Structures
1.
Amino acid sequence: TASAAELHERILAAKAQLGDRVVTLGHFYQRDEVVQYADFVGDSFQLANAAKARPEAEAIVFCGVHFMAETADLLSGPGQAVILPNLAAGCSMADMADIDSVAECWEQLEELYGTEPDANGRVPVIPVTYMNSSAALKGFCGEHGGIVCTSSNADTVLKWAFERGQRVLFFPDQHLGRNTAKAMGIPLEQMPLWNPRKALGGNETAVMQDARVILWHGFCSVHKRFTVGQIEAARAQYPDVRVIVHPECPMPVVDAADEYGSTDYIVKAIAAAPAGSTFAIGTEINLVQRLAAEYPQHTIFCLDSVVCPCSTMYRIHPGYLAWVLEGLVRGEIHNRITVPAEVADPARVALERMLAAKP
Ligand code: 13P
Ligand code: SF4
């Protein structure tokens, strides 16, 4: 196997040969050894926009996870190839909602609420999918009057949905859904977790009648590790600490933090802080460690002292990056992500609704 130094030379050489023919995108959670080669690094929302930005490039090499590459394929120019350097880079949260289960849930909700709009023209339910989901689910939303959101625009998107619907079905991440709806003033009793067995019978019917946001049971295994106890420990050690967490964290953690926001929110908050600030961050470790290295004038640490990487983001290794880039130099496309047209068309509708939604 090639050494790190050899891979570095090979990636630089391939990128130099390819020039503007290829654009390399990287999510903030990618390891430093990969981020250094990205032409653009950002959060999920910014990367979706970046995928639209260079339609003349032959290929987009996406250093991130599968749902992000699918989204890039949906938004990229015609004929442009989107490449995921390692096809095993998925997202366990995205896998927690599959199209069959969501379609079955939808059928039960239609039985429960009917399909007729109310006096204000609002339909019974609007489906909202977090970006962290398969293209099939984005397509489902496109077909059923719904929309996509990311962690940076979930409140804007929920407002969009409530202008058009009486309720929202939010999947896959229960925590982002709950945290966002709570911040909008929706009481917890009106955000039941979807329970397919009980939904149509017994006491559950009353709960469902009052529901404003019906939450899917998905979660992120990285962000669910953060606890209120960790926040208390950070405050005990550093009384002036600023605690910022990602909204994929459980609600008590978000409530105990000073602020919450997408990865880009976290990056910008740190960049704007006066020198000598102390931050305890509740998100993926590669981003936190990079910020700590970039801002030595601050004290920055991860709330979870046991290192918690996103294991699937980590599957993008420089070796795979070298392999796909060198393939492109030879005119070979490896690991192309293509969303089939019957899914792509409605999925694009849901994504474009998100991109057009105004705060
Ligand atoms: P961001 O949109 O905040 O980058 O989040 C993506 C993600 O997967 C967080 O776990
Ligand atoms: Fe998915 Fe969580 Fe990894 Fe984000 S951090 S890609 S939600 S598993």
Note: The CA atoms of residues 140 and 187 lie 27 Å apart.
2.
Amino acid sequence: MSVRKPLIAGNWKMNLNHLEAIALVQKMAFALNDKDFDRAEVAVLPPFTDLRSVQTLVDGDKLRIVYGAQDLSPHDAGAYTGEISGVMLAKLGCTFVTVGHSERRQYHREDDDLVNAKVLAALRHSLTPILCVGEGLEVRQAGGHIAHSLGQLDGALRKVTAEQAKSIVVAYEPVWAIGTGEVATPDDAQEVCGALRQRLAELYDPEVASAVRILYGGSVKSANIAGIMAQPDVDGALVGGASIDAGEFVKICRFSD
Ligand code: PEP
């Protein structure tokens, strides 16, 4: 039996200012009955500008919701205008940081080398990377989805030790399912998540493979979360659009509609 605690992480993308962030986290914590809720670890990933406000609320009200950022620089400090480092995120009490999200790969041309450098930067500062991998529609239609996702995993984990690898989270996010309403079937999600776990066993060992949490992401909603969570190699969800609706996100955290 798996000892992996499910993780539901909300990627707010570029939505909500710091006041709206406070309102959303308050609503979410209330609806979740935060102090007693134990079914999953719940994380929010707001824009950088909201993090300090979310930190103050979470610390002040002793909420169990954890938080993180949507990206980080591969560098720790220096002349990198516009960048935010892992040092800064750690200081703000972040637990997680997404790395290699398909929107970063697509709009900012992030390749496997940069994703790898960001994974290493996160680990240097004890942040847990949520490493996103997943294929586009053409690759899926050509049947290359598993090879593509495994290739991204291999590329992102170069120079990551077994001890470090145990702590990371991997998110399988087929690009054709992100923000499209086109959710992968539970079997599709299991197929790739299972293959990713198998690859972790090959790259490291079975202990690492069974420790790593693997999430599914792509148009997750309260209506489809139960089927996804029933898969043996799916340990949670990375939720985009539905994560900025407190009622819907809380239902997802409860695995129900
Ligand atoms: C995401 O942004 O990681 C995501 C999965 O988005 P959505 O749930 O909106 O498809």
Note: The first helix runs from residue 18 to 32.
